[in-house]
Amino acid sequence: MKRFRILVTTLLLLSLAVGIPFGGCSEDETSKTKVVTSTSLIAQIVERIGGDKVDVVNIIPPAQCPGHFDVKPGDIQKLADADLFLLHGWQGEKFSEEMIASANNPGLTVVQINVKVGENANWMTPPVQQAAVDKITEALCHIDDVNQSVYQEAADKYKGVITAKESAMKEKLAKLDPANVNVMCADQQPGFVNWAGFNIVGVFGRPDSLTPQVVKELVDKGRAGNVALIIDNMQSGQDAGAGIAEELGCARVILSNFPGGYEDTDTWEKAIEYNINLISGALSK
Fold first, then answer.
1. Which of 122, 209, 280, 283 lies at a 20 to 30 A Cα distance from 82?
2. In 3-state terms, what secondary structure has residue 223?
3. pTM exceeding 0.85
4. 188 touches 235 (CB < 8 A)
5. Mean pLDDT across the stretch 204-216?
6. In this predicted model, what pLDDT tens digit does every residue of 162-171 receive, in sequence order?
7. Which residue ranges form the domains of the chain, and what is each CATH number?
8. Is residue 273 classed exposed, middle or buried when 0-12, 13-18 and 19+ CB atoms within 10 A define those classes?
């Protein structure tokens, strides 16, 4: 027994001398930059740019509207432990101010990634996705300048992926002759629909804004405009356009504005392809 105690003591002393972790965090784990993101749009970019240099935690589930998100104590703790908080700065993120104050983390850096290309602010479109990559890369480089070259190299690689995906999606869209397809869409989708090349006849709001009179006006406009497709938005009330589509007797799709909204769409390129496939499938019937 005495020899056993001596052996255990010797092993513990050696572990302290050479830095072998016994039940604790490794140096790699503790040196990672802890990033909290408000949505999956930001999270998936941080993950692919930051790689093993970052630890990313996202707050709002991808299928949920940011404006309807309820803060939980665990979300505040995430900020209390974080180095960087990245959010969009949208009106629907008002909850973030209270979260930041409650976290009481003087070492927390908060950066708003509110990007727009021309009048388009839809992150699912390739131009806005590219602009978001630049902004997020800048934020990561600022808080962790030691790894600037790593972040920039990963960002350049991902921007190449975006360019290639845009080309492939435009080729697929061209087969639908979008300029001659009249659509109506939810008010969170015009940026994406315009990028895709479709002709927007009308835009509708969330379900609670669609009074009988508003629906009648939209249906009349849809008939006059020979609308072939209604485009709903998952996160802002996915059934808002259902009644309009039924009255017009036309096809309807529900697009997601966030990666992860649908199963197996955790990256931007998977999510945009899923959206385009939904549209293509609806118009091909």
1. 122
2. helix
3. yes
4. yes
5. 95
6. 999 999 999 9
7. 16-169 (3.40.50.1980), 175-284 (3.40.50.1980)
8. middle
